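ok posting inputs for the zinc ion job
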Amino acid sequence: MTGCKTCGKPLSKVNRTGWCRAHYAIANNSVQAMRQNERQWSSAEFRARHAERTAARNAAKVAWCPLEYRADYERLKRVKHYTAAQARQMIEAQIAADTALYLRTGRLPQAERLAA
Ligand SMILES: [Zn+2]
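and the output
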């Protein structure tokens, strides 16, 4: 992506709309856009498909994380405001530490955490 479709202002690499902030707002606040949104979201089938896709996408995002670490991962992101990448690094370090402890002592800290 190089520049805004309307004004040509340079856009960041992560821009997914092809518009700068001002022109994206104009493009998506039109009467037509509003009517299209109303049409789409009034359909129960569309809402069901959207919910299904969202659930699948959210499940895929945390597929790497073992179940017993999910709550910690979510807490790092939502409460501590770490990025997903930072939180993942911390959880992976925790998994390595727990594995090392298990190999040394036979204690399973992740099982104790699940029980708590
Ligand atoms: Zn623009």
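notes: Residues 1-61 form one domain. The first helix runs from residue 21 to 28.
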